[in-house]
Fold this sequence. Notes:
Number of strands: 0
Structural class: mainly alpha
Distance between the termini: 98 Å
Helix content: over 70%
Largest sheet: none
Amino acid sequence: MTPINSSKNQYRYGPSEGYESRTRRRLKDDLGIDESAAEAILHLRSQVVELQSHIHQLEAELATHAVKQQMRLALYRESYYEATWIEVEFQE
């Protein structure tokens, strides 16, 4: 007895078959995409992953830069207030 909702495509991967070859095979078998289109899709996918990684790195650097700026601003404010108090004391 077969379940009603069972998938007709059951994939069995060999131990040496990598992600790209599995994806290439699934694109070809399931979607009918030819080999050159599958290569283009995989290349674009790897570029997207690389760009996402670069974006995350830049976001982290930007956050670090913003924190450093806030700390520097806080130090400047503290120095300004101290200088103001010193000036007030001299005027009295």
